[in-house]
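One such shown below:

_____
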Amino acid sequence: MRQALGGVRQVMPRLASDINRVERQLDAGDSFSTAIRPQIGIAPYLHLALAEDHGCLKVTVTVLARDSRANIINNYGKRVYQE
């Protein structure tokens, strides 16, 4: 998880303060879902919390990232074709 957070920090430096806060919360013993909750909606949070409980956090993060990317691409396409 640390490596992934570091990668996001490099690609999106504007999120550095949020990522630093997440890392501090992880250091304090909070779960990933709790640490990232202020940055995400309730549905992704619940997915992450359940994934942690069932030991499949990595797969769930991958799926949520893929779905988020698809939504961004779809929304961009809709905007481009509407202009």
